[in-house]
Amino acid sequence: MRSTVNRLQRTLAKLDGLPSALRGPARNFALRRAVPFTGTASLDFVALTPERSEIRVANRRPVQNHIKGVHAAAMSLLAETATGMVVGMNVRDDCLPLCKSLQVNFRKRATGGLVAKAHLTAAQRQAMANETKGEVTVAVTVTDEAGIEPIECEFVWAWVPKEKKPQA
User: Fold this and answer.
1) Is the predicted pLDDT of residue 142 greater than 60, yes or no?
2) pTM
């Protein structure tokens, strides 16, 4: 099996030396810069490991819909980000992760803020480490402050080789 430590893991590992009170804000700053739309929605990157991710969004005016709940687009962004980040923690440096498909079914009205938790199996992580291209269906659950799952999601992520820049 190839080395599973990639650029994202190395970048986040640099934050481990910070005092614990600064690690979360520093992680949020770094990840929001890497994916600017997550900063626009003020997503909170609670946990991010090669095995799992946990990301929150508060029910604040910039992400609300017309009934003062978290907007459908923000719910989808939250789930997409949770799945994409756990994939990003595993994709090889010579590959590019791409969301291939998503399905979001809206089941209940959400109460308050939301949290998305995504994870990969050991077999999925091994495939990403060993294969130049492929795809995985990433498990994700989204719950609101009442503990209800207002949406059910399925995200399929692919990874493909990065294009090599022509040499001058």
Assistant:
1) yes
2) 0.91
